[in-house]
Design goal:
With about 400 residues, this protein is an alpha/beta fold. It folds into two domains: about 140 residues, Aspartate Aminotransferase, domain 1; about 250 residues, Type I PLP-dependent aspartate aminotransferase-like (Major domain) (Aspartate Aminotransferase, domain 2). Helices cover about 45% and strands about 15% of the residues. The N and C termini lie far apart (about 60 Å). The relative contact order is 0.16. Bound molecules: pyridoxal-5'-phosphate. The site of pyridoxal-5'-phosphate has 14 residues, from helix 6. Pyridoxal-5'-phosphate (PLP) binds next to helix 6.
Length: about 400
């Protein structure tokens, strides 16, 4: 007798989905396709030499920290470095506020594990990051979508949703949102932390792209605005009271292969993160943590981030210019001030999925927008990245996309 595997699966498997994007990426990775589909940082910008240097240093001088089993909470030195970094960013933080995770993706999973029972509501921006939907859904989350506009999540709709539902938390991407590239305005940030406080519904602030601002003034994090509501935080030099769990990552500034990220949270939540993580991977890759810490301690991060910003700005400009020149006027798109993504809206009634075969023929790839929505909307939207190719290829890719769109419109 052989095992009937199908009869054995846990119920939660029904809630799990594979990412629609990963399926499209398989096609997009064919040679000579100009792929704007992925969400990968430019590999040429990985600080390879510097990572080699800090890797060598860790192997030579930090063998116990870098190669031995470590604490689930994370490497003490890195947590301290990050606590200082968060404090410099305007939120009083100490080591007890920091939980290191294997990428921010793991933190999303841990939030689901800690807070979501089957049928629980989670408020999400619409559209939102697919990886978060996958994580929360695996625990049986029911999504409450709130629409976005050019200033980020719409506060009027969010307030109405909070009156109608009692979500476990609100999942918010304040900077250069994935997928749309839009940024939450300062006014809305203020309103959002007030609403979190008055409704007693916490915010999960996912911010992988905040450092990658290449234009305009940086805006305060939801974490810092929230921390300021409670003066005892400043007095204690730690984020003791508050309504935000903030996620940061080295994936977009150093390299995603390191799998090192961090959560900033009130101490009891940071401890629960560690508890929930223990059963999953014991601790985050210690060598990667030691390398990230050494990289920061040597003061190399600002110059690295500056290099990325310059490159992405040039590429964003190339993409926007090409779209302005070549796209039909009925097609609109966002003009992100940072991050990796730009969002395209086709005329009402068009379906981005239907464009895929023609796009494949012309050897250009993008991601249709509908999977980023939880309510079946967004058929006429799509996401592209400007991060992973130079201006000339971007121009050629947009030329091909313009042809595909014009053909479909005709
Ligand atoms: C919004 C958002 N959150 C989280 C992640 C996951 O990042 P990490 O590599 O830190 O797991 C990504 C990756 O693309 C992302 O876009």
């Amino acid at each position: 007798m052989t095992t009937d595997w199908n009869a054995l699966y846990a119920r939660r498997l029904e809630w799990m989905t594979t990412s629609a994007i990963r399926e499209i990426l398989k096609v997009a990775q064919a040679p000579d396709v100009i792929s704007m589909a992925g969400g990968w940082p430019e590999a040429d910008l990985f600080p390879v030499e510097q990572l080699r240097e800090v890797g060598d240093y860790a192997m030579a001088h930090l063998t116990r920290e870098a190669l031995q089993y470590g604490l689930t909470e994370g490497l003490g030195a890195l947590r301290q470095t990050l606590a200082d970094y968060v404090t410099e960013g305007g939120t009083p933080a100490n080591i007890d506020n920091i939980a290191i995770t294997s990428g921010s993706q793991q933190a999303l999973d841990l939030m689901g594990r800690l807070f979501v029972d089957e049928g629980d509501a989670v408020l999400v921006e619409s559209p939102t990051f697919l990886g978060a939907l996958q994580s929360f859904k695996a625990y049986g989350a029911r999504f409450v979508p709130v629409p976005l506009d050019d200033d980020g999540v719409r506060i009027d709709a969010l307030e109405a949703a909070l009156r109608a539902e009692r979500p476990k938390f609100m999942y918010i991407l304040p900077n250069f949102q994935n997928p749309t590239g839009v940024t939450l305005s300062l006014e809305r940030r203020r309103r959002l932390v007030e609403l979190a406080a008055s409704h007693g519904v916490p915010i999960l602030e996912d911010d992988p792209y905040g450092q990658l601002r290449f234009e305009g003034e940086p805006l305060p994090s939801l974490l810092s605005l929230d921390a300021a509501l409670y003066p005892e935080n400043a007095a204690a030099g730690a984020y003791l009271r508050g309504n935000v769990v903030h996620l940061g990552t080295f994936s977009k500034t150093l390299a995603p292969g390191l799998r090192v990220a961090w959560a900033v949270a009130p101490p009891e939540i940071a401890r629960q993160f560690a508890m929930a993580k223990q059963g999953s991977d014991l601790h985050t890759n210690a060598l990667g943590q030691a390398m990230a810490n050494e990289f920061m301690c040597r003061g190399w991060l600002p110059a690295q981030v500056e290099r990325i910003r310059r490159t992405y700005l040039e590429r964003r400009n190339a993409m926007v210019e090409a779209m302005e020149e070549m796209f039909p006027p009925e097609v609109s798109f966002t003009r992100p001030q940072g991050g990796l993504f730009l969002w395209i809206t086709l005329p009402e009634g068009m379906d981005a999925v239907a464009l895929l075969p023609e796009a494949a023929k012309r050897k250009v790839a993008f991601v249709p927008g509908a999977p980023f929505y939880v309510d079946g909307k967004g058929q006429n939207t799509l996401r592209v990245t400007f991060a992973s190719m130079g201006p000339d290829l971007i121009r050629e890719g947009i030329r091909r996309m313009a042809e595909v769109i014009r053909d479909a419109m005709a």
